[in-house]
Write a structure and sequence with these properties.
The chain has 224 residues and is α/β, with parallel strands linked by helices. The protein has one domain (7-222): 3-Layer(aba) Sandwich (Rossmann fold). It has helices spanning 16-27, 59-72, 96-117, 145-164, 193-206; strands at 7-11, 31-36, 49-53, 76-81, 121-130, 171-176, 213-215, 220-222. Strands 3-2-1-4-5-6-7-8 form an eight-stranded mixed sheet, with helices on both faces. Helix 3 (96-117) links the parallel strand 4 (76-81) and strand 5. The chain is globular and about 45 Å long. It binds NADP nicotinamide-adenine-dinucleotide phosphate. NADP nicotinamide-adenine-dinucleotide phosphate binds next to helix 1 and helix 3.
Length: 224
């Protein structure tokens, strides 16, 4: 199957995986709405790229961004929830400050953003969440408590949403993009940003699953 993806929205498109995925989608002929905190992407523009300012940890900002998309009159084939933070990747002891800041973006923000944009996703479309294999139960280790828990919560939300949206035939996929050479993943990560963006592109254009965890590195479904 080749899912048609004419209009795609990507959050956190200023950097890392979100930026490369945006470029890949444009290369492949899609039109992209990129959500960035600054309202810009440094040194990059494209005739099919619309950049909208948005901080997904801020409800008012989400509302304004959703209204701007409404004004564009576009129905999305795919909503890519990519924006995320990894604030305690090297820590073992959870703190209130890092828990709150992590959940504000990775969980509450991602959920509220998705809920605000649901009406813009067309029937038969899809919603993707950049999750992590670090949140799968068999991979649990003591480090990154806020990060792992914030993404595990998103995995659960993704399954719930897949059930809610089944009658609209909207597929919902939490996915692992690999351990990727980005600001978050660091220089020693084994997967290049380009490899990850290509894998995500393949997943959103070919994936037929819903409510399942997809691992880009394995190119397969994994158990939660
Ligand atoms: N890299 C990995 O190995 C890896 C592995 C598994 C999962 N992931 C997931 O993949 C996604 C992308 O990660 P990455 O490695 O590309 O990280 P990154 O290079 O740090 O990029 C993160 C992006 O999210 C944006 N962002 C953060 N908080 C935001 C907010 N409140 N509102 C809007 N945008 C926000 C950042 O914007 P600014 O530029 O404004 O900061 C940036 O564009 C994340 O969800 C991450 O958890 C990454």
């Amino acid at each position: 199957m080749n899912n048609s993806i004419t209009n795609v929205l990507v959050t956190g498109a200023s950097n890392g995986i979100g930026l490369d995925l945006t470029k890949k989608l444009l290369q492949e002929g899609a039109a992209v709405i990129a959500i960035t905190r600054s309202g810009e992407i440094a040194d990059f523009s494209h005739p099919r790229l619309t950049i909208i300012q948005g901080d997904i940890s801020n409800e008012e900002s989400i509302k304004i961004a959703a209204n701007q998309v409404k004004e564009l009159g576009i129905k999305l084939d795919c909503l890519v929830n990519n924006a995320g933070v990894g604030l305690d990747l090297g820590d073992e002891i959870p703190t209130a400050a890092l828990m709150n800041a992590t959940f504000a973006t990775n969980t509450t923000g991602t959920v509220l953003f998705t809920e605000a944009f649901l009406e813009h996703v067309k029937d038969g479309g899809q919603i993707v969440f950049l999750s992590t294999a670090m949140a799968l139960v068999r991979n649990i280790a003591p480090n990154a408590p806020a990060y792992r828990m914030s993404k595990a919560a998103i995995n659960i939300y993704a399954v719930m949403l897949s059930q809610r949206l089944a009658d609209k035939n909207i597929r919902v996929t939490p996915l692992h993009p690999g351990w990727v050479q980005t600001r978050m993943g660091g220089d020693t990560a084994p997967v290049t940003i380009e490899q990850s963006a290509n894998g995500i592109y393949k997943a959103i254009t070919e994936n037929t699953h819903t409510g399942k965890f997809w691992n880009i590195e394995l190119d397969a479904v994994e158990e939660f």
